[in-house]
Give the backbone structure.
Amino acid sequence: NEINQYKFEQFIATKQIKENKDWRDKQGFKYINDLLVGCSKMDKWRYQDAFLKDWEMGAKESGGKSQRWFIPVVDPKKIFKKNSYQLDIGGEFLREKLDFALEFCENIRIDHVMGLIEPYLLSTSASEDEFVNGNDKNHDVEKYISELKDADGNEYDKAYPKLLTRLILPALRRKGITPDKAVWEDICSYPDRFVQIYERELNLPKIQNIDWGRVQDKLNRDGRKDDWYLMGSHDNMPAMTYMQRIGDMKDGSKGEYTREHDAWNLDYLAGYLNMDDGRENIGQIRNELKELYKTNDRERIRAKFAELMTTPKFQISFADLLGITDVTYNIGGSKRADNWKERISADYLDKYYKNLSSENPTALNIPELLKKALQAKIDMQVMESKDRDKTRAELNEKYKPLLDGLQKYADILKEPEE
């Protein structure tokens, strides 16, 4: 009965997901699914011969102890059959996992891509006291998979360096997903083999957190146009509380360091979002915004979100979108009992509208932010033009209906409900 109930629940869930995809296809609304680095206990049981017996996957915390994730690691010897690229049981598991992840969506996020190139191994029998606290590691119980040796002392892993090119990327292409479209979660340590394959050989997109940098530098100086950009994530405290973060100030004291960080500079934000020197009253506009950002923390944070929206591809966490400020979804590297437990309530949409129509909203008014980002993009094109007056006039005429429409809906979201 227990098995039959589980099968029925899976049937209902799959039926609903399929119906949702049919509806989304009609709306032109696309989903990005998550290819988790881990797997279910059922998959581990079904494919038990595919995994390393004495090792599990974790992560090396910079300057701290290794994180134990309790995630099984596919045995490199079981990915491809000997002397060929035909799939063995481990490769079959990965292909099935990827096919299911792609079944009802249009794009994919590759969770912890380092786990497909250079997994960080922890001995299943080791106690946490054996893990080294710092940048070094106890090689007997914690190591990268490239450091693993067979019984004769030879290199054990020759499969993982070929996993992306021989299995993952071909599967994505069959789905019509090019490497620049997928979301590659590379927020991890960068050991030598990972750098060699991920950066130098494949040059795959990264995730850029503009909390610590300027979009202007990333796009113009570094040329990172295929990357995905974010301003905080589900692993961070809510963005609306960023200005109150305590840390090291430039003078060595402790204080609200975000205020003096270059990425949050008042002149930069006001200037980046209003770049066209020929716009009417542009000096006054910039000065008023600088004063606003200086005196209103939430307005400065909204300016960062508008900056984010000028990037080609960006992400916003559900908590920041909905204005949730009293809880952090996950504190990375911690064993907090509440990690991953937070859920939005069924009346989230009513709460979102109520938040936006309040006197001091924490939710994001997306039309308002998009209007600021669009104006910034218009200004950029004007400043790059040889005939700025002509370009400005053409772009203002072209985008005025869109700018007006965004303002209309921004204002509607601010209206209190009757």
